[in-house]
Amino acid sequence: MKRKIISLVAALGTLTLPAFAQEKVEWRYVSVVPKGHAYGARMVEAFDNINERTDGNFVIRFQTFGETPYKVNDALTITRDNLVDMAEWLRNYNASTYPLLAGPELPLKWSYHFGQVCSVSKVYRV
Fold first, then answer.
1. Are 29 and 87 a contacting pair, CB within 8 Å?
2. Cα–Cα distance between 29 and 36 in angstroms, integer?
3. Hey, is 15 helix, strand or coil?
4. Which residues lie closer than 8 Å to 43 by C-beta, 6 or more apart?
5. Would you list the domain boundaries of the chain?
6. Do the Cβ atoms of 62 and 31 come closer than 8 Å?
7. For residue 121, what is the enclosing H or E element?
8. Model pTM above 0.85
9. Where are the beta strands (DSSP E) in 1-117?
10. What tens digit of pLDDT does each residue of 57-108 get?
């Protein structure tokens, strides 16, 4: 009986051991704007805060598309294919690949191109 309890405790200890071991995780974030831009600076600040709060176990590297061989309109594809971990994407850049993503902005585009300042609800009534 004593041997079974010791075996059970040893088995549970081996199963829970990975939960206590923290391995370092590093992600790569690809952005449209550089670090010098106000938005890029805020993102770098947030990523540094995450790094600090996790004691360096979760690091997010900030890069711009200019530092990579990828184009801005490939953001969804490179994320899907696990070439980067996170990517900033803009609907208008991806409209040729994924046309439905640009749909929500169409009413705003119509009002802009016709030179009218109107709300979205007015555009939908046309």
1. yes
2. 16
3. helix
4. 29, 31, 62
5. 22-89, 99-126
6. yes
7. helix 120-125
8. no
9. 25-31, 58-64, 86-87
10. 999 999 999 899 998 888 888 888 999 999 887 776 766 666 666 666 666 5
